[in-house]
Structures are given as C-alpha cells and as structure tokens.
User: Which sequence fits this backbone?
C-alpha cells in the first residue's frame, strides 16, 4: 500500500507546482519530508524525473528555494524531487550536537551501528520507498529517472547510482565528497554509522565502487562540477581520486573546474541548467 502523503504547501511556479510533502516512512520509522516540482506536462501523463540530494545541514527546502532549477525543468517537462537529508527527531543521544553528523547529516547510507541503525536508513529510504512514491503516487516515468546532488548529496547521488543496477539512467554532482573513506567528514560519518569495518565503508564510497566495478557503469558519462575556490576542496572532496578511478576503469567522466567559485548555491545555481540539460539528453527529453 502506498504511503499517504500530506501536502504541506503548494506554490505556482513556472506554470507548474512546487509542492512540499510529509509522510510516515516505513524505512525510517519516522515522518519524512520531501519537495516536488511538478512541471505542467505532468497533467498529460508520466514525466521524467530528477532526484536531487542536498548536502550537510540542508533540508528538503534548500534545493527548491536556492538552486533555480524550476524554470528549465518546466520548459523540458522534468519533475524535480528533493528529500530531506536525514531523519528528524529520532531521539538518538547526540544527534543534534554536530553539524556534520546526526541530524541533517544522514550521508545517504543505511547505518548498521547502534543506536543509529533503527532510523538512519537513508539509502533504503531513497532507493526503495521514495522511488516507489515518485513513480507510483506522483506520476514519474520509472524508466526515465536521473539523480544528482551536492557535497554530501553528491556523494549520495554517485553511490546510489553506482549501486542500484540501472535504477537511475543518469548521474551528476556538484562538489561531491567523492572519496569519503579518505576525508574527515567521511571517516567521522562512516565510523559513527557503520563501525570500524572499512569493507563496509567501501560500499558507500564512489571512488571505491568505481574501482571495484572496473568498467564503465555509466557509458554515457558522469558530470561533476567543482569550484576551485571551494574551501572544502583541499581536505574533504577528493575529485582527483574519483577521476583517477574512472580513468582506470574506463568510466567516461567530465570533471569541470571553475576558478573563483566556492561551495555554495551561487556556484550551484550558475551551472544548474547544464546539469538539467545533461540529464535531459540521457533521459530522452527533447528540448
């Protein structure tokens, strides 16, 4: 049975609707929120969709209000879905003590370590539960779904795409945490959620997943944009490690570097249209 959606608000936007929902999540065991931009073309049948995963401290509202994606999505007839970045109110001791772990920092994985494993199941939530809602209740075309994201969400987009055997036809990222096993953010999150077994970490590390695949998982390519003035680039993001793994595996990758751009949504909004058009081409969208 499909989950019952509670519409929290709806806003007319570029001829479509920007909507915000809440529902009781079976995977998370708590209410979850997500946003959906429904393009005008959805009135006539299923439309392609892009799932956007946001970064640390963000919510389901961040992408909708800051990225400036709706105009082109309306023109091309693409639905946009953005889930929250973690469970809220799980009651886990310490979940609100750090901005880079716990609330707002679910890292798009299924925790296996107590006390996190009961509710912190963002990988299964997005790939199973949210996917079913998007394709069933909301009317997206299940054969034409792409995924992208930023920072922690870029990590999430890459790992979900690489692990779900064709569920997503296209993938891109803005300033992703591309090798989380090799950076402080990833080490903290993986150690806290998964424990000390680095083999378990590798299942959520895009660079390790490409190395293990040893082939082109996305023959039509992956797109990454990275600002060169990004304050997190030297220590947290490691795009060169991911690029090296892609080169060794024969995975086509376009890694674009942009002078003077930092880590925030001024950077993301500048190149958002490029990402939507990248996905549109691979989802068979004319325009």
Assistant:
């Amino acid at each position: 049975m499909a989950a019952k959606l509670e519409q929290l608000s709806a806003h007319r936007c570029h001829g479509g609707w920007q909507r915000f929902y809440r529902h009781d999540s079976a995977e998370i065991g708590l209410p979850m929120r997500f946003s959906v931009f429904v393009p005008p073309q959805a009135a006539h049948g299923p439309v392609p969709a892009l799932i956007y995963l946001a970064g640390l401290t963000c919510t389901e509202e961040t992408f909708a209000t800051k990225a400036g994606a709706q105009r082109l999505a309306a023109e091309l007839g693409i639905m946009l879905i953005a889930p929250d970045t973690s469970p809220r109110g799980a009651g886990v001791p310490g979940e609100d003590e750090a901005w880079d772990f716990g609330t707002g920092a679910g890292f798009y994985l299924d925790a296996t370590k107590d006390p996190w494993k009961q509710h912190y199941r963002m990988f299964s939530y997005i790939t199973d539960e949210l996917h079913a809602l998007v394709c069933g209740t909301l009317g997206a075309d299940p054969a034409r779904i792409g995924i992208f994201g930023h920072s922690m969400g870029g990590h999430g987009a890459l790992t979900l795409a690489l692990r779900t055997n064709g569920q997503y036809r296209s993938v891109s990222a803005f300033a992703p945490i591309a090798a989380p096993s090799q950076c402080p953010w990833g080490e903290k999150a993986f150690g806290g959620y998964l424990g000390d077994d680095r083999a378990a970490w590798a299942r959520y590390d895009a660079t390790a997943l490409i190395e293990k695949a040893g082939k082109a998982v996305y023959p039509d390519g992956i797109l990454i944009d990275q600002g060169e003035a990004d304050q997190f680039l030297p220590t947290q993001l490691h795009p060169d490690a991911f690029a090296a793994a892609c080169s060794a595996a024969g995975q086509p990758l376009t890694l674009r570097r942009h002078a003077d751009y930092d880590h925030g949504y001024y950077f993301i909004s500048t190149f958002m249209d490029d990402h939507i058009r990248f996905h549109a081409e691979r989802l068979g969208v004319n325009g």
